[in-house]
């Protein structure tokens, strides 16, 4: 085993030992391969099984209803917020590694973040390939170095912003508040990015305002999330 493989093995061992502590705290006994939002409480839990469709397929087919855009984005941010509180960085957060299941007649979305193979504790080192999509780095630029560098909450926030912008872009959804916060997350300088808590509060506020707007517009002729309701709805054009 060369030094690079030994370092990687030791890093993974540290992460999974730390995960076991989190599992005990969350009262879960199984080996994790995904982080999911629970159906009722929407509090994240680590699980071994999950169901649904990868987000990148839903985006490609534009099969996420406009009413579910905000809940999906908010749940993604909530899971990452909890991982951040546990000092864990997913390191490979992208639409391919997010699964969405639509439950019941209301088709309420339930988000699962999968593929924890690159997860690290903050401070552990990683070296990501500098992949780009439409000129934007998939991974935080500071992680795309020629040598391993420590992961940080700021590098995780960058990937959250990348996912948020992908959802808004592929669904042609417009909400200036979400657009602004996703752009802040994608700033090149890590220290200039917002904390994940601010991103989560912003999503929750927009979701709440959109819910109030939807209540006001029912019966008015422009369905839930229509432009006639005011507030901060998410509008989609197909």
Strand order of the largest sheet: 2-1-6-5-3
Gyration radius (Cα, Å) is 18 Å
How much helicity do the residues have? 40-55%
- Overall pLDDT score: 75
Q: Write the CATH fold name.
A: Transferase(Phosphotransferase), domain 1
How many strands? 13
Content of β-strand: 15-25%
Q: Give the overall shape, derived from the CA principal axes.
A: globular
CATH architecture assignment name: Orthogonal Bundle
Sheet with the most strands, sense and barrel status? 5 strands, antiparallel
The CATH homologous superfamily corresponds to Transferase(Phosphotransferase) domain 1
Q: Which structural class do the helices and strands define?
A: alpha+beta
How many structurally independent domains?
A: 1
**Separate helix tally:** 6
- How many angstroms does the end-to-end distance come to? 52 Å
- Uncertain residue segments: 27-33, 218-238
Order of helices and strands: HEEEHHEEEEEEEEHEHHE
Q: Briefly, what CATH class?
A: Mainly Alpha
Domain Protein kinase: 1-207
Biased composition (Gly residues): 218-238
GO molecular function: ATP binding; protein kinase activity
Protein name: Protein kinase domain-containing protein
């Amino acid at each position: 085993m060369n030094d690079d493989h030994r370092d990687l093995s030791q890093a993974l061992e540290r992460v999974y030992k730390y995960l076991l502590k989190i599992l005990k705290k969350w009262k879960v006994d199984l080996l994790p391969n995904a982080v999911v939002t629970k159906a009722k409480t929407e509090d994240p839990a680590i699980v071994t099984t999950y169901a649904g469709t990868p987000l990148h397929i839903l985006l490609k087919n534009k099969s996420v209803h406009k009413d579910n855009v905000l809940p999906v984005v908010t749940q993604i941010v909530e899971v990452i917020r909890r991982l951040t509180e546990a000092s864990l960085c997913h390191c490979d957060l992208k639409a391919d590694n997010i699964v969405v299941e639509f439950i019941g007649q209301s088709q309420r979305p339930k988000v699962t973040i999968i593929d924890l193979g690159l997860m690290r504790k903050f401070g552990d080192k990683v070296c990501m390939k500098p992949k780009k999509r439409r000129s934007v780095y998939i991974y935080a630029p500071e992680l795309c170095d020629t040598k391993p560098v420590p992961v940080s909450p700021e590098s995780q926030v960058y990937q959250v912003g990348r996912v948020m912008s992908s959802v808004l872009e592929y669904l042609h959804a417009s909400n200036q508040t979400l657009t602004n916060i996703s752009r802040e997350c994608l700033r090149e300088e890590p220290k200039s990015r917002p904390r994940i808590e601010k991103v989560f509060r912003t999503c929750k506020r927009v979701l709440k305002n959109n819910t109030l707007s939807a209540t006001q517009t029912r019966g008015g002729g422009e369905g839930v999330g229509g432009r006639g309701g005011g507030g901060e709805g998410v509008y989609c054009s197909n």
